[in-house]
Amino acid sequence: MYRKIPATMASQHPDNANVPFWHNQAFVDTVQEIKELGIVFTDLDIDEYMWDWEGKLVDESVIEKVLVDKFEYFKTKQLGRDKFLTYRLPNPFVETEFRLGRAFFGMLSADSLAYKLGLHTPPIFEAILPMCESAKSLIDIQEAFQEIASLKHWLLNVQRGHLYHLEPIPLFEQVEIISHADEILGEYLKMHEDRFGFTPKYIRVMIARSDPSLNSSNVANVLAIKIALSRLQKFSERRELDLYPIIGCGSLPFRGGLTPYNVDQFVDEYRGIKTVTIQSAFRYDFPLSDVQAAITKLKQLLPHSQARVLDTKTEKLLEQLVQIFKQNYQSSIPTIAKIVNQVATYVPKRRERMLHIGLFGYSRGVGDISLPRAISFTASMYSIGVPPEIVGTGRALRELKSLGLLDVLAKHYLYFKEDYIRAGGFVNKNNLQFLIKEDSSWQNLWDDVVELEQYFGFKMEPRTPEEQEHQELSSQILTGLKTGKNVSDLIVKAGLLRKSLG
User: Fold this and answer.
1) CATH code for the part of the protein at 8-304
2) Percent of the chain, pLDDT > 90?
3) Which residues, 6+ apart, have CB-to-CB distance to 263 below 8 Å?
């Protein structure tokens, strides 16, 4: 392997409840993100930082500013060799206004500056393509980059480094796409050879852990990833091509469940993953020394993680389970949408976002139902004492029992019980009963809780003083909503207790 593969990738996902240890407020604007970039390298020793163009405002002169701020550091720990800055591109199919071109010019400008300063080039050479659904979209991105990189004009006759070919990282965000990631990569390799005359030496591929849960349920997402990791491993061996899967994970189980305290469990659950995102809640809602120790452990464990290879029959069974959990989850979206959207208006902002277009759409034949983004959705559900992990899960378990498939789930979602013990401590049954009185369709979520309790053999209710306090806050939040009170402060207090906003 001719390059270092990062094990840890800091991201700007705005899921922190607490104030960052280096800042004076929980909100981080685009100016402060430059400072944050340096700190995650120097203070946390994270390998990579995702510079996010998707749906948010972004400082386009990041390389110029960070080199000015940390030049001595980056002379030793060089970008593109020792530490990595990776753009998450604006998806050109939903974000226009030249944002993709601006991102490309930023990469080319960084390459030119590094060359002039005698630093490693290129400092940025990979870019994440969100909402990737086809091999063609990856080729389209590479072709667009090459056309911009080859622009000729005497006024653009600047010194260049070594950036001429962009290496895309597909980000798969739907359970069906995740499960068949290997097929997309196979088509991509063929198209790449035809278009550019060579095949990549390796591929990094990113698997989402938030939006697929939002769209299809927590359990469906977990199982789709198990299928993907198995198929990607077989694809890698068959094609004799190194693959390095990345997982985008938050701290609450619904969004991945990675915290500084369950690193061993997480790495075991997602064997085969080579890079994990270290999001804002992980970095800022836990003691700094624990965060640093966990990052060190991740960097030790992930390079040696090997995927579990499943036989074709098992993969097909898991695909069946994915659909069962997805359908049971989606059947409750009309029930929860109204209150979730109401609570989400009080979830405080942590980054400078633009209007996001990729909203959840679920057709009931009377138009589409929209939900907030995954972090606000998760924060909203936890804030009213109905963790989204439970939605549809109990009813799906009942269906699996009738089909004799419970053992399949238990075998492949290794820490199912641990995740639901954690989520279950934040269930507020009084709130659920109140919601049922207002709308009888909430009874389905009560049934989910009952089925989960029977399956696991424990009560889904607070067990610790923190969880008890969280229950009291979630009661105040629901009451406040009904009386028109601003509940933002209560939502933050609840997020601090569970150590993640959403």
Assistant:
1) 3.20.20.60
2) 87
3) 294, 297, 298, 301
